[in-house]
Amino acid sequence: MLGGGMPELPTENYPTKRNIFCCIIPECLQRAMHRLLHYLFHTRNHTFIVLHLVLQGMVYTEYTWEVFGYCQELEFSLYYLLLPYLLLLVNLFSFTLTCVTNPGIITKANELLFLHVYEFDEVMFPKNVRCSTCDLRKPARSKHCSVCNWCVHRFDHHCVWVNNCIGAWNIRYFLIYLLTLTASAATVAIVSTTFLIHLVVMSDLYHETYVDDLGHFHVMDTVFLIQYLFLTFPRIVFMLGFVVVLSFLLGGYLCFALYLAATNQTTNEWYRGDWAWCQRCPLVARPPSAEPQVHRNIHSHGLRSNLQEIFLPAFPCHGRKKQE
Q1: Span 179-201, pLDDT tens digits
Q2: Residue 129 DSSP one-character state
Q3: Three-state SS for 144?
Q4: Count H helices, E strands: the chain?
Q5: Catalytic one among 99, 159, 165, 317?
Q6: 134 classed as catalytic
Q7: C-alpha angle with apex 171: 168 to 177, nearest 5 degrees?
Q8: Coil, strand or helix: which one is 14?
Q9: How far is CA 242 from CA 142, 239, 249, in A?
């Protein structure tokens, strides 16, 4: 009996969802999936870099093979058609820099230098805290990356698509990469959509009729028009759908990244600050004696200063170390 209440029921009679899941999927398959997910998301590897380049290559191959050729026949502006290639060059350059640039790895040699770059707020980043893995004093705004296994100065997040951490020294390249990737996807979508609309207008398809399964005549509607275009240009329509979805997803993330840059926050700080706000919510249970600590962004000094810090990051000066 528990506290004079109802008798404790045996837990083995009530299998959990995990037990049911284990009964359905063989154990060997579970171990294989676990190893695969661990390899993809918890170790440094080039899988997503290759996937990124393959998808980008497929989109631009289809754009070059069909859309560019058809648009030239329709006498589209050449500058308009070449814009995606210009964005691609800038994107690949910034992508490479994001992958290979040191994000701001903290070592024994530069530990003291990084400690003086940012002020400790004593809430999210208190003084005299050591990293249990690297055995280094943690500068303000730094974090240990469990994937790369090193501490990073002004840590933002670990990006599997570039196989690198995003920190103080490569965040500018990451923003340019994200901006040009979004712009190139949107440009390809706009050019492809313009081509299809131009084709519909020239062919006067909206005034055509079709016969349904019952033998009735109907004026061409939007749904049937999309089906007709998909059957006529299946690869272009499929590519268009892909880049449209990609443009919205990347556009949303780009707005979030620009917001963080404008307010001088990192993804890590935004996440931890948001969690701290949840902890102060009256609906969240916490010990009565615990007093919530209010996190305040002390690093934002205006839009111009914040953007300057992103694109002209401060490098620790060795002269300061000698003065210490």
Answers
A1: 999 999 999 999 999 999 998 88
A2: -
A3: strand
A4: 12, 6
A5: 159
A6: no
A7: 165
A8: coil
A9: 36, 5, 11
